[in-house]
Amino acid sequence: MRRIYFDHNATTPVDPEVVAAMLPFFAETYGNASSIHTFGQQARAAVEQAREHVARLVGARAAEIVFTSGGTESDNLAILGVVRAARGERKHIITTAIEHHAVLNTCQALEAEGVEVTYLPVSPAGVVDPGAVRDALRPHTVLVTVMMANNELGTIQPIEEIGRIAAEADVWFHTDAVQAAGKLPIDVKMLGVDLLSISGHKIYAPKGVGALYVRSGTRLAAQAFGGHHERDRRPGTENVPGIVALGKAAELALVKLGSEPVRLAALRDRFEQAILDRIPATRVNGAGALRVGNTTNITFSFIEGESLVIALDLKGIACSTGAACSSGAIEPSHVLTAIGLAPAEARASLRFSLGRTNPAEDVDQALAVVPEVVDHLRQLSPLYKKPVPAP
Ligand code: PLP
Predict the structure, then answer these.
(1) 4-12+258-379 CATH, one of 3.90.1010.10, 3.40.50.150, 3.90.1150.10, 3.40.50.2300
(2) How many angstroms separate the alpha carbon of residue 40 from the centre of ligand 1?
(3) In the prediction, which pLDDT does 180 show?
(4) Whose Cα sits closest to atom 12 in ligand 1?
(5) pLDDT (tens digit per residue) in 311-336
(6) What pLDDT, in 10s, does the model give residues 50-78?
(7) Could you write out the DSSP letters of every residue in 229-289?
(8) Which terminus of the chain faces fewer neighbouring Cβ atoms within 10 Å, N or C?
(9) Can you give the residue ranges of every domain in the chain?
(10) Which residues does a 6 A CB cutoff place in the pocket of ligand 1?
(11) Separation of CA 78 and ligand 1 centre (Å)
(12) Ligand 1 centre distance from Cα of residue 72 (Å)
């Protein structure tokens, strides 16, 4: 059985070209990038070349890229760094209800320190209204943080408009672009963002490496203490193989940006439409909004999402629910409840996220399996009444 991987928003395989690029930096070119001898200089040159590639992916200058351990650290550094560097007794942040927990929980941690946070609601399609950002501004607002593309729905947020509003108000603006990088063109200058997070393992580089774009002139306090690495913004000996990998992945992502998102959008659209046509009581979440082309989030009413994930896995299809399972209880996704789904509907929703591992045949193979599995699980549901075909 060929297993189909429809979970690229969770993580991606490392591209073979990325593996090849990073391998020499484990055992051959192993210098510390801060050492002044030749070993060190070789590592430094590789790190700086990677910085150029990452900068190019987002339209920044190399000096504005800080390497981190991933998307979570980038989000933490951006939010904590800007808020803690800001002057003033009272501080206020504006964010949205559908951010990743790397942003939401960081904001909550700051609330415990006395920072005020506004969590803006989103439309039923999963998009925040830029007007609501403007209305939420206060004299002591120091930061707006709004993600570029949502990880569960794929919905694209109006970053450029929000960037203009933040700039007019003279407030720092961070965007979590972890799910946008490689899927959408990104130009930090055009978007008007001061800080932007990316993660290696969502763009075919390994887990445990990421980057934060910090516009030059942004006041950012380091959140860890040590050496003078990364221009005093992120101490710690550089993860040279990981950084080289991120650089190569960024280079490849930029090359593929013209074709791969279009290919995936066509596959996603065909998959989505066929599910809606063939399976009753299904709906696409976020369908009314602009979305990244690889993601679809579908509610299969009358089904427990976790059971469907497991049943599909047994048939060789890997996908996910947005729900986080903690202490044995499955919490409905905060994103799906934010767009108005009842808890039962949120729990009945699955995310399929396509990527480079998927040829067109994967969609056909999945479509041969999903309707049957859904029908089987629904037969077990006391709530489900099969629609009677019209005479
Ligand atoms: N932000 C978003 C939108 C994400 O989807 C993720 C990962 O799922 C992260 C941040 C965290 O990135 P990392 O896994 O590199 O810490």
Answers:
(1) 3.90.1150.10
(2) 31
(3) 98
(4) 71
(5) 999 999 999 997 665 556 678 999 99
(6) 999 999 999 999 999 999 999 999 999 99
(7) HHHHTS-S---HHHHHHHHHHHHHHHHHTTTHHHHHHHHHHHHHHHHHHHSSSEEETTTTS
(8) C
(9) 4-12+258-379, 16-256
(10) 70-72, 75, 100, 102, 147, 151, 176, 178-179, 199, 201, 210
(11) 14
(12) 6
* Nearest CA owner, ligand 1 atom 8: 10
Lookup result for tokens 């996220």:
353
pLDDT tens by residue, 120-165: 999 999 999 999 999 999 999 999 999 999 999 999 999 999 999 9
Best of 98, 99, 183, 202 to mutate for ligand 1, by most ligand atoms within 8 A of CB? Answer: 202
Confidence at residue 15, expressed as pLDDT on a 0 to 100 scale: 98
Query: Quick one: DSSP state of residue 320?
Result: B
Per-residue confidence (pLDDT) for residue 261, from 0 to 100: 98
Residue 383: pLDDT over 80: no
Of the candidate ranges 47-51, 83-87, 326-330, the one whose mean pLDDT is the lowest? 326-330
User: Catalytic amino acids?
Assistant: 325
Q: What is the pLDDT of residue 326?
A: 54
Is residue 363 within 8 Å of 305, Cβ to Cβ?
Answer: no
Atom of ligand 1 nearest to the CA of 208: 15
- Which class is 16-256 in CATH? alpha beta
Residue with tokens 């391998």: 23
CA of 12 to the centre of ligand 1 (A): 12
Pairing of strands 282-284, 295-300: antiparallel
Q: Which atom of ligand 1 approaches the CA of 11 most closely?
A: 8
Q: Quick one: tokens of 238?
A: 């550089």
